[in-house]
Predict the structure.
Amino acid sequence: MLTRSPIPWPGLGIATATAVGMALAGVSGWLVLGTLLLWTGSLWLSRPEAPLSEPKADRAAVSRDVMRDMIEPLGIALVIFDRDRVFAANASARAALGAHIVGQDGRIALRHPDAVRLLTMGDGATVILRGLSSARSLWQLSRRHIDARYWLVELIDRTVEADIGRAHTDFVANASHELRTPLATVIGYVETLADAPDGLDKEMIARFHETVLREARRMESLVSDLMSLSQLEAEKHDVPTDPVELGSLAARVVGEFAGRDRADRLLLERPEEQISVAGDASQLEQLLRNLIDNALKYGESASPVTISLTAENEDTARLAVADQGQGIAAEHLPHLTRRFYRTDPGRSRAAGGTGLGLAIVKHIVERHRGKLDIESEPGHGASFIVRLPLLAEAAPVSA
Ligand code: ADP
């Protein structure tokens, strides 16, 4: 909106001076008055239009709106304070602290004692808080000044970083523990063999050797699984592209178990036609090997293990390994693919398990953009079902 400019004083002054001059020169009073009226009237009507000049209060309202609009779409949580009161909080901040904080006193809005300290701290001050949005959450809050009246608090959610850090520490602790146990056994047995003053009888020595070898193999399996996991972690964003035919891959893996005890328990069901996916053949072999190994370990010793391969629909290959063992209780199902998670640690260790087999399977499935489902009815066995995207067009097959 535009408004008229103030009164045109210089023009009016000249008009008045001219009228006085005319009167002094003896011009008729009516003519002088008419000239003065015409002149001032034209000056008034022709005065230029001036741009808006807002009252101070309106200007402040506009800049408050600008500040509010500017922070609203930002992904980082921001709260603007007008002295001690919350004047605006963007969507991310409202999601973390609640929409009710807008307009509240800062001490009530921030509620956490360490966060409230920010109200009296200087520009650039930072505090780290636990439990601001949820009991486990970890937030970093920093204070930045806008001007003498307004300042903002930037809230950065560090919960995920803290969780990753904790998971990493737990993983290293678990891996060290898993390695230390067989290592302690090996050292103990070797020391006994070396220290026996009169030697040990042959049978005893054979038993000691057997134990040392078993524990050394356990360490070897653990190190090999740890290396597989770390390689999978490194490659997880790199989607494999080689065409792999799952029928011949499954036949090859089942064939590897031939000669080992329990191999006659394996039943492979595969269709006549080829079922191909884009994949990493050696990782898919490892996936199937781990699932078959578990089914043999945890299934009933005399019962069959079925490996079935089908094209579920025109987009999806379905590879399932089913056993007829004791199965898995429902509360364990969501955790089975966590590293070192075991439903029965004693049984797993006795069977030479590392606790990493299903974590490796999950990583391989994720790298292939597939899905892993675990179904079990306790007492009636377990099925591990892997779904992978089928290769779109027929391509030369490498496996
Ligand atoms: P492990 O080396 O202990 O076998 P995995 O990661 O392969 O480690 O499996 C994790 C746990 O899941 C096992 O310890 C076992 O408790 C359970 N599990 C895996 N496969 C089966 C199965 N086929 N039947 C019953 N439980 C199973």
Remarks:
- The pocket of adenosine-5'-diphosphate is lined by residues 294-295, 298, 323, 325, 328, 336, 341-344, 348, 353-359, 382 (CB under 6 Å).
- The mean pLDDT is 88.
